[in-house]
Every structure is written in C-alpha cells, then in structure tokens.
Amino acid sequence: MTEISVDFNRPVVVGNEFEYMKQAVENGHISGDGPFTKKCHAFLEKELGIPKVLLTTSCTHALEMSAILLDIQPGDEVILPDFTFVSTVNAFVLRGARPVFVDIRPDTLNLDESRLQALVTPRTKAIVPVHYAGVGCEMDTIMEIATRHKLAVIEDNAHGLFGKYKGKYLGTFGSMASQSFHETKNFTSGEGGALLINDPAMVERAEIIREKGTNRSRFFRGQVDRYTWVDIGSSYLPSDILAAFLFAQFEEREKIQLHRRQVWELYYAGLKDWAGTHDMQLPHIPTHCEQSYHMFYMLLPNLELRQKLISYLRERGVYSVFHYLPLHLSDMGRGFGGKTGDCPVTERVSDQLVRLPFHNALTSAEQEQVIDLLQQFPF
Ligand SMILES: Cc1ncc(COP(=O)(O)O)c(C=O)c1O
After folding, report:
1. Nearest alpha carbon, ligand 1 atom 8
2. In this structure, is the dihedral angle defined by the CA atoms of residues 266, 156, 193 and 173, taken in order, positive or negative?
3. What is the average per-residue pLDDT within 111-116?
4. Residue 185 alpha carbon, nearest atom of ligand 1
5. Which residues make Cβ contacts (< 8 Å) with residue 25, sequence separation at least 6?
6. How much distance in Å is there from the Cα of 177 to the middle of ligand 1?
7. What residues line ligand 1, using a CB cutoff of 6 Å?
8. Best mutation site among 58, 82, 87, 178 for ligand 1, i.e. most ligand atoms within 8 A of its Cβ?
9. Is 49 helix (H, G, I), strand (E, B) or coil?
10. How many Å lie between the centroid of ligand 1 and the Cα of residue 54?
11. Distance (Å) of CA 105 to CA 19, 112, 132, 286
12. CA–CA separation, 105 and 157 (whole Å)
C-alpha cells in the first residue's frame, strides 16, 4: 500500500510574498499602516466597493472593534448564530453584552432568519450573521428585520471574502463586517484580519480605536498638529511585513479562487452519489449565492460514525477536522442560561460535521486519494 499523507491545511506561497516582505523592510516602515497596508486597504475597498477597510491583527480584533464602535453596554443583547467560532460571541461579551443564540438552517448551516424576529427585545442592539463556509445568509430578511427594529448588522465574514448574495459581495450589507486572514483562510498572512466599514460616520472613530485610542491617523495626515489620547482603544494594526505577505496573495486572487473552486467541485462531483447512498449531507449552495470556496464539509449520519470516519482517515494519513461545539452548551453559554434542546439543529450538526483537507496547494491526486478512501469507508 502506498503511503498517503494529506494535510488538512498548509501555508502556501502563491506569488511575490517573500519579495514584498523584503521590500517592506527596505521601505524602512515595518510597523502598522505602511505602504503595503495601504495597498491592501485600496485593493479591498476597490474590489468590494466599500468606503473604508482597515487591516487588523485578526478577525477577532475586527469584531472587538465593531463592538466598541457600536457602544455596546452591559445588558445589551446581541443576536448571533449558535454554530460559530467563539470570537463572534466573545467580542460582544467583552463589552458586557448578553448573547442571544439563534439556531441554524439545516441546509446552509447559516443562522435561521425565520427565528430572528421572535428573539428581538427592547434590549437588542445588533444582529451578527456569520456567512458559514462563505455561503451567504439570507440578507434580505436579516436587513429587513434589522431596519425595522433599528438594529446594527455586523457580518462575521471570516470565511466569505469574495462570496456574493444576490450579486452583492458578502461583508457589504451591514454597517460593518470582519474578515479573517488566519492561515486556514483563502487569503492569509498567518494571523490577520480586516474591518470593513460601510458607514462613513464610523470611520474616524474606528481609526482612533485601532490606534490605541489616539488620533494618530489624523496627525499623520496633517489634520491635527499633535496626537493624543481621545477615546478607548487598543493596538489593532498589523505590521506592514504581514500586509506585504497578504498583498502578494491578493494579487493572485484569480489563481487562488480558481484553484479553490476546482478543489471544491472535484470533492462534490466525486462524493455526490456516494453521499446520497449513505445518508450523508453535502454542502448546499442556494442558486442566489456565489460561495467563496472556503471549505468542504460533510454531515455524517451521527456522532459515532463521524468520529469513526475521522479516525479511519487519520490512520491512513489523511487529516480531517470537525468544528464548532454549540455555543449555548459551552461553559460560558450555560452561564448565560443555555440548555440542551435550545438549538436542536446546531446540536445535531455539531455532532455530524467533518471538514476535508482544503488548501491552496492541494492536488487533484491527493483529493482522489481522499475520495477513494471515503468510498471504501466501512459504515
Ligand atoms: C466564523 C469565524 N469568526 C471569527 C473567527 C476568528 O478569526 P481570527 O482567527 O482571524 O481571529 C473565525 C476563525 O476561524 C471564524 O471561523
């Protein structure tokens, strides 16, 4: 038997990453907001058609900035999907908010917009949709409910850069959105993120919060003659060396997205019939959504089979992973009153989901090995 080794994720240099990092050093500006950070901002603003983009040290930090910008206060309620990464909730809980978890749709695993209305109270301040796997949430309904109740919408678009809902880029619907450039994402700087700001009234304060609560950005633009402490804030701006790495990846946008599309489509074509005969669910992409090709997941019939499949692949050199545990059943979630049965779809999906290897250097030969192994899996 040939030795198989297929990584779940691998950092991949796709273009001028090293050359640009060298240039960043030669530019003499390796702290934040140097020439490469500005190039990244300009690229995303132009491509997405969004008024302002600010690179951050992570998606987590972009979410934290959005919670500060919304002036979230202790006791405010924020509605978010139960099936998401902890940062989506932590950013708001850090400001004292009470999280209100909404269950997900069984088809796209995005928050179930039909359950939103019932969760809105006079204390609700914001809705935080997560475009799971880069497939758009039902933004028409979400925006309609938010507008009617005067709620902010912050899109957690960690997975969804360049995905679209009804022809419009994800991350451009709410007043703000967060992106992730963590190493598992389509475009990466190892760790990194961005805050997309759709509401021009928020830009100046966002720059201050990102610069430790100072008006340093205005000072550098010559708009004030000294900089000083004017608000709360932290250090949310990444080194220009990281921006240099990231910009090189942005330049290869077409190549990266085409490759990821091919990876996704090969998995889907290779597994569709097999999944159908074994009671497995593959991703569902509504026809009005263009996905970002961030990940490929499958839902197994139950937890026992999911665990068995992960071990089976692992023993044969293929690394697959599962994620998110229901937030309402975590230690913190239970502290906010969460109990079994609150979000039944999340509770089920969390037991069933497995993610297959997916990265920018994954070859079709490796994928064929994964598909072959899956088809031989003894259910
Ligand atoms: C939905 C979601 N939001 C936020 C994050 C946090 O991203 P980061 O690691 O860039 O802080 C992740 C991480 O993968 C995520 O999956």
Report:
1. 59
2. positive
3. 98
4. 14
5. 241
6. 12
7. 58-60, 84-85, 87-88, 130, 156, 158, 180, 182, 193
8. 87
9. coil
10. 17
11. 44, 5, 11, 12
12. 17
Q: How confident is the model at residue 209 (pLDDT cuts 50, 70, 90)?
A: very high
Residue 70, CA distances (Å) to 21, 91, 124, 171 in order: 35, 12, 12, 17
- Of the candidates 214, 256, 252, 266, the residue with the CA atom closest to the CA atom of residue 236: 214
What is the CA(94)–ligand 1 centre distance, in A? 16
Nearest to 294 by CA among 364, 360, 366, 245: 360
Residue 159 Cα to ligand 1 midpoint, Å, equals 8
Report pLDDT for 20. Answer: 98
CA–CA separation, 39 vs 350, rounded Å? Answer: 39
pLDDT value, residue 107:
98
Atom number of ligand 1 nearest to Cα 181: 10
Q: How far apart are CA 182 and CA 253, in angstroms?
A: 16
Q: What is the DSSP string of 63-102?
A: HHHHHHHTT--TT-EEEEESSS-HHHHHHHHTTTPEEEEE
How many angstroms separate the CA atoms of 35 and 242, rounded? Answer: 12
> For a substitution probing ligand 1, which of 59, 63, 89, 322 has the most ligand atoms within 8 Å of its CB?
59
pLDDT of residue 1: 52
pLDDT of 8 over the 70 cut: yes
Global pTM reads 0.98
Kindly state the percentage of the chain with pLDDT values over 70: 99
**Position 118: which residue type?**
A
The pairing of strands 52-56 and 193-197 is: antiparallel
Please name the residue whose Cα sits nearest to atom 16 of ligand 1: 85
Residue 184 has pLDDT above 80, yes or no: yes
Per-chain mean pLDDT for the chain? 97
pLDDT of residue 116: 98
CA distance 33 to 243: 9
Q: How close is the Cα of 66 to the center of ligand 1, in Å?
A: 14
Q: pLDDT tens for residues 131-151?
A: 999 999 999 999 999 999 999
Q: Which atom of ligand 1 is nearest to the CA of 191?
A: 10
Report d(CA 357, CA 359) in Å as an integer: 7
Contact between residue 373 and residue 313 where contact means Cβ atoms under 8 Å apart: yes
